[in-house]
Amino acid sequence: MASKGRILQLQNYSVNDGDGIRTTIFFAGCPLRCRWCANPEGYTPKNQILYVASRCIGCRRCEAVCPEGIPFDFQSPQARERCTGCGACVDACLEKARKNTVTEYTVDEIVAKLESQLRFFRNSGGGVTYSGGECTMQAEFLAELVDAVYDMGLDQAIETSAYFDLEALQPTLDKIDLLFLDIKHMDRDKHLAFTGVDNDLILRNIAALGAQRGGIVVRIPTIMGVNGDDDNISRTAQFVKDHLRDPQIELLPYHPYGVDKYVQLGMPYDEGEFRTPTQEELQHLTDIIEREGVRAVSFK
């Protein structure tokens, strides 16, 4: 039987994740727990139920079909703990108050969807970007999909935390045209505090890839109060300059657009701790990057 990938979304007409018009494929599952994450539904490869309470009319159709007997009010922690993510309630909800986070696809099913976008890829110089969650957590399925898209002759990019087994991923990464690699913080302890893992493996992988190839852009999710200070940006730029053949950094300003998802998943969110940089602050940080001899780029 063909293997299946657990996918959050196939986003067509994406223009921020590489050159041209692209389809970005968001994989479920991530080894990091970034406290500002805009896609918390991607933490796990398991299907979860997004619940929009304002849409619920209390018809209890969901309650009637739930194999676990969970009440229609899906806001309690107890209900979340009992939910298996079977999706029966999603199918039963007439008001679209519930939504699955994960859809399973075979490689052939995704290729068929990509074929419908070929004219956009060809005319714009675009292609396919793999994101998440963390797409490398589904390494076997990612490898199969990358091979299939490679045979289609399409440009491929990947967005990754670089928290992976490089030796195992190497054959897959060799077929990727552009690597977006995140450095969320240069300080090991702060990285651990904010993401749940330290940065040792990440920095080691970026240095190793930088020694092998070009086509790498380091991205910094820029969050005031976390990593948007002069010292961290300067240290990141120095690391990139030392280890990348064509050193490039893209600053990605923090945004709170994912806050509603935390509510819909019944998850806490420490919203007050993080701040979006102003345009003046971004320009200041960009100047620091360029003074270190690194090119500041933008795919916006």
TrEMBL record:
InterPro entries, per the entry: 4Fe4S_Fe-S-bd (IPR017896), 4Fe4S_Fe_S_CS (IPR017900), Aldolase_TIM (IPR013785), BssD/PflA/YjjW (IPR040074), Organic_radical-activating (IPR034457), Organic_radical_activase (IPR012839), Radical_activat_CS (IPR001989), rSAM (IPR007197)
Residues of the Radical SAM core domain: 16-295
GO molecular function, one term: 4 iron, 4 sulfur cluster binding
Reaction catalysis annotation: glycyl-[protein] + reduced [flavodoxin] + S-adenosyl-L-methionine = glycin-2-yl radical-[protein] + semiquinone [flavodoxin] + 5'-deoxyadenosine + L-methionine + H(+)
PROSITE patterns: 4FE4S_FER_1, 4FE4S_FER_2, RADICAL_ACTIVATING, RADICAL_SAM
Residue ranges occupied by any 4Fe-4S ferredoxin-type domain in the UniProt entry: 47-77, 80-103
Cofactor(s) recorded in Swiss-Prot or TrEMBL: [4Fe-4S] cluster
Top-level division of the source organism's lineage: Bacteria
Regions that span the bilayer: none
SUPFAM superfamilies in the record: 4Fe-4S ferredoxins, Radical SAM enzymes
Keyword Zinc-finger: no
Keywords assigned: 4Fe-4S, Iron, Iron-sulfur, Metal-binding, Oxidoreductase, S-adenosyl-L-methionine
Alphabetized Pfam families for the sequence: Fer4_10
Family under the similarity heading: Belongs to the organic radical-activating enzymes family.
Protein name per the record: Glycyl-radical enzyme activating protein
Organism: Megasphaera stantonii
